[in-house]
Automatic annotation (TrEMBL):
The keyword NAD applies. This is Glutamate dehydrogenase. GO terms for cellular component: cytosol. Substrate binds at K90, Q111, K114, G165, S380.
Length: 452
């Protein structure tokens, strides 16, 4: 049995209750086969695959807090510190009722390779809680964040582990957590990214994941002799990543006709009005029905299981920006039959393994989240640099570094695919290219640092 198959088999036995982690590990290890085969003896002896798939540590803790009725509530908190071979652990905190250890582990595992692709010195980690911020008062959010950070503060630090936002964790939550860390540790340091601009945050971090997604998509299209100008896109989600992906797409001449949230979606043939979307989602924290009520060209549809949602429309590019496994095989077939040119992932693992394979085999230009959404964490690393320097760079400076990083990521993933002759559906296999390019750097560091 090959080394990859042996490790995958062990992983399935050890992590049977963690389907998302197994899905992520299978995708990565499968695509690394040519690299592993070429170095099998060394990697087996050094147990590289066993080590890279086992987190350095998994921290789980109780988060008690008091709600507005005086009732004590208890949530579960997580931080998975996966791999720090190339830098301090780095990755967001997800606050969503669906959060469990398997989801945090899959996200932390992906983060190792993504962070390596950014070209910056950051290791992989992820955390969060099954706390649901929806419908909570600001005081309840603060009570939760303070309690969460009271425990988490024991395990993080500017050179140890630097968390950030993710689903459900935005500027408000980062603020409450930073305040509590400062109070407990008696120290002002860049322990979190996504901070407010007056207390160590970086300009362009808010925009970075969505803008970065479009910079990479633009590089992909240009490399294939195509232009985004005048094209139409479907976007899912209506949170941080989706909003700034829509904004940058429009700046590049793309008409975005959809967005969604967990209860339904908008189809707006005139193009999404991003200012209105920001007002509804960022300011009012309201549902998308409010967007439809304010814009006559927009239709709102309630989500029902088995429907294609935003993926049913005839578009040139699809940008999944909501959550994992939101684009399945049937959606992929629909997109292909409608002639989609590219699918580039703003979210983490939004496309199922079957859908990814179908899109790639049918000639769709497909770039997975590890490469396509790396602009967020890359800009977080730029925030860390600014904090270390005790300086703030201009928006233009950060944005131009972000653009350069995304173009380099695209060049590196296509180069890695070419070096190993990884092609699919007539294109470079960018999924394999991303996994290989991310892996090579981490494995070099692991080998250099000995058994640890
Ligand atoms: N923020 C960042 O910098 C980065 C984020 N990502 C990834 O991008 C994705 C989106 O994150 P972000 O925009 O920050 O998060 P937000 O919380 O700002 O937005 C999440 C969006 O996805 C929707 N959503 C969440 N869960 C579900 C679900 N189970 N089914 C359908 N829709 C859902 C939300 O709808 P609703 O409002 O109804 O919950 C919301 O529209 C995630 O996969 C995240 O891991 C990746 C790289 C960096
Ligand atoms: O900016 C960060 O550190 C976190 C980004 C993140 O969670 C992600 O890339 O999925």
């Amino acid at each position: 049995m090959s080394y990859v198959d042996e490790v995958l088999e062990q992983l399935k036995k050890k992590n049977a209750s963690e389907p998302e982690f197994l899905q992520a590990a299978t995708e990565v290890l499968d695509s690394l086969r040519p690299v592993i085969d070429a170095n099998e003896q060394l990697y087996r002896k050094e147990a590289i695959l066993e080590r890279i798939t086992e987190p350095d540590r998994q921290i789980m803790f109780r988060v008690p807090w008091v709600d507005d009725n005086g009732q004590v509530q208890v949530n579960r908190g997580f931080r998975v510190q996966f791999n720090n071979a190339i830098g301090p652990y780095k990755g967001g905190l997800r606050l969503h009722p669906s959060v469990n250890l398997g989801i945090i582990k899959f996200l932390g595992f992906e983060q190792i390779f993504k962070n390596s692709l950014t070209t910056l010195p950051i290791g992989g980690g992820k955390g969060g809680s099954d706390f649901d911020p929806k419908g909570k008062s600001d005081r309840e959010i603060m009570a939760f964040c303070q309690s969460f950070m009271t425990e988490l503060s024991k395990y993080i630090g500017a050179d140890v582990d630097v968390p950030a936002g993710d689903i459900g964790t935005g500027a408000r939550e980062i603020g409450f957590m930073f305040g509590q860390y400062k109070r407990i540790q008696g120290m002002f340091e860049g322990v979190l990214t996504g901070k407010g601009l007056t207390w160590g945050g970086s300009l362009a971090r808010t925009q970075a994941t969505g803008y970065g997604l479009l910079y990479l998509t633009d590089a992909l299209w240009r490399d294939h002799g195509k232009s985004l100008e005048g094209k139409t896109a479907a976007v899912s989600g209506s949170g941080n990543v989706a909003i700034y992906a829509i904004e940058k797409a429009q700046q590049l001449g793309v008409k975005v006709v959809t967005c969604s949230d967990s209860t339904g979606w908008i189809y707006d043939p005139e193009g999404i009005d991003v200012a209105l979307l920001k007002e509804v989602k960022e300011v009012k924290r309201a549902r998308l029905t409010e967007y439809a009520a304010a814009k006559s060209s927009a239709q709102y549809f309630e989500k029902k299981n088995g429907e294609h949602g935003v993926w049913q429309y005839k578009v040139d590019l699809a940008l999944p920006c909501a959550t994992q496994n939101e684009l399945d095989l049937e959606d992929a077939k629909m997109l292909v039959s409608n002639g989609v040119t590219s699918v580039t992932e703003g979210a983490n693992m939004p496309t199922t393994l079957e859908a990814t394979k179908y899109l790639q085999e049918n000639g769709v230009l497909f770039v997975g989240g590890k490469a396509a959404n790396a602009g967020g964490v890359a800009t977080s690393a730029l925030e860390m640099s600014q904090n270390s320097e005790r300086l703030s760079w201009t928006f233009e400076e950060v944005d131009s570094k972000l653009k350069g990083i995304m173009e380099t990521i695209y060049a590196n993933i296509s180069d890695a695919a070419k070096r190993y002759n990884m092609t699919v559906g007539g294109n470079d296999d960018y999924v394999a290219g991303a996994n290989i390019a991310g892996f090579e750097k981490v494995v070099d560091a692991m080998l250099a640092q000995g058994v640890c």
